[in-house]
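During the reporting period the student researcher (J.K.) took over the structure-prediction task from the postdoctoral fellow and processed the backlog of single-chain submissions. One of the processed entries is reproduced below for the supervisory committee.
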Amino acid sequence: MSGAALPAAGAPPPRPPPQDEVDRLIEQFDPESNFRRLVGVAAGIVTVIAVGLSGWHYYTAGFGLHNEIAHRAIHLSVVLGLCFLVFPRQRRLAGPWEWIVSAGLGIFYLLLGANLLRALAEPVPVAAQIVFIGVLLAIAALALPFKVYDGSHRHIPWRDWIFAALASSFSLYLLIFFDGIFIERPGQHTPIDLMFGVIAIAMVLEATRRTMGIFLPLLAVAVVVYGIFGPYLPGGLAHRGYSVPRVVAHLYKGTEGIYGIPVGVVATFVFHFVLFGVMAQLTGLGQLFVNLATIAAGRFSGGPAKVSVVSSGLFGMISGSAIANTVTTGVMTIPLMKKVGFSPRFAGAVEASASCGGQVTPPIMGAAAFIMAETLGIPYNQLILVAIVPAALHYFAILLMVHLEARRLGLAGMPPEEIPSAGKVLASSWHLFIPLVVMVTLLLMQYTPFLAAFWGITLTIACSWIPRLIGRRGRGMTGLAITPRALVRGFEMGAKSALGIGAACACVGFVLGITTLTGMGFKFSAFVIDLSGITAQAVLALDPFGWFDAKGVTILFGLLFTAIACIIMGSGVPTTPTYIILASIVAPALAQLGVPQLATHFFVFYYGVLADVTPPVALAAFAAAGIARSEPMRTGMTAFRLSMGKALVPFAFVYTPALLFIDFTWNGFLLALFATVVAIAGLGAAYTGQFGRQIGRAAFVALNLLSLALVFADPQVTAVAAPAVLAILAWHARREKTSPARSTG
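J.K. obtained the following structure tokens:
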């Protein structure tokens, strides 16, 4: 075994990083959870607002929503205001770039406002113009990074109070004058409407920059500029162009802009499940997941790594954030993996790769799944069933890679004394299952997701008291009761945890709005199709025997180019906004190639998730490297290598939609499942580098080519490729039996 020697048996586990270091990792890699640590009056004000927001969502989930626009406006008015009170301003770019970007955004706000005033058909009083430009100047000036905050973030600067008021103002304007705007004069826009629209654009961009970083706001600015200056663009990028008032009105007052589907889903679905996840964590559900994962996988070779895979999947299913999942569960799992002999780099990579799985795991798949169901117009319970097989293949792929690495290193499982008893765990924690079971049952019975979340939250609070009600000692039961103080803390943390995704979805509304206005998605589709066709023709020209199908090769390159676009666009962006962007811009390309719509959206969703472990911007892997104390880029490359097997899964269900229960036949389904499993096994062995015996270069190339061929799930190809892969693996495994036994340290 290469590398450092294994720790002696019974050695204490490496100590996890101190809490301040964990906080630093969250601040660096997970801006969604980088909250101010407020004290005094400011802390009280934020607590009251956050608890009120959660309480309002909880009430409306159980007793009825408002009308569509009003509900979204109420939600966004509080969310965007809280973004500036809860999140500190950080310098996220090195050197002068922070100043350049901030100044550029300020100039954009001023130019947008000035062009709006110039293009208005109605005269605007001079006083109103002065106030409007003054507000934009204030936004531009206050957004400049002229002060570096200290690390405490215990107070709210006066400028953030101003930002919070402005961020709430444009939604409150819609609420106060709702009847006049949407009932008395629908489709008509007054100068005041449009002025508030410009303020809305500016404050959404600033809130997103505060919570998510700079990439998403710059993308939103680019698409807005694209919508205005379309006639001046070259070639296929050109479009008719739209005036500034038209663009502003479409983004502000339309249902395809700021208040579009993403914000609607967050306000009606996502927020409630985030709140449920926070409340469930208070009762001890996270520790229960770790215990169950340890029982299921701890005794096998490389047990802690497999525990990490399973527990991270269970936790990430509820959290919906790969980075937050990595930091939360990695503090527990990474030291255990290092203890049994995994290198720090590999331990961090396993946690990062596993943490990306929760978002694709039913029955609760994170925020993006709700948006997918709303976008496709299908019931959420149907989406749950569709996601079962891809999720199973995902976990098979990563568990196989972990198993092969553990066998390569000669690692054993966890000692029996470190594995909890299944009977004791179930006896002490059975009450924690009740909310989850009821919630999933309601989802499968086609009740609305927000009603299911309402009962999940209600039962979580109620069931947390069962140990106390049974008896003073609780009869051996565990879990914390949600007292009034804990309820306030849970409601506050639930609201804070939903702020980042709320701001990001409002910002992504710019992309959706301009895409529907200009047809940007179809232009990208045309580019991908043309490029795929040219590449396919070049490949077919090298095939004198006609072995390749022209359509299949074109789709293959279309998928490859789409996958690359998904990874690039998803770099540094949370999963939910990534999916929304990809679904609006990239997905139409695959649809035009004849890929079923559901398979198309699952494809871009999976590769958007994969962006979190794909260098050079692999934020989940970088966060795991901080915990494991390993080199970030090498950890990211290892995490990407661990993901090679599951990277095949989207190709498999595109070529064989039966895996998603589309055009289902048992013959097609079983053939595709067998071919995909064999392909994953082949790639897993190839990129582990050993399957009993070291994989040579010729075997590596053969396994890659044969595994790719199996993706097509063609009966004739499978009949040749599958036995060949199995023969290579069997030969290497047989050689292991004759090789001398290695010491396990």
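The committee noted the following: The radius of gyration is 27 Å.
J.K. will present the remaining backlog at the next meeting.
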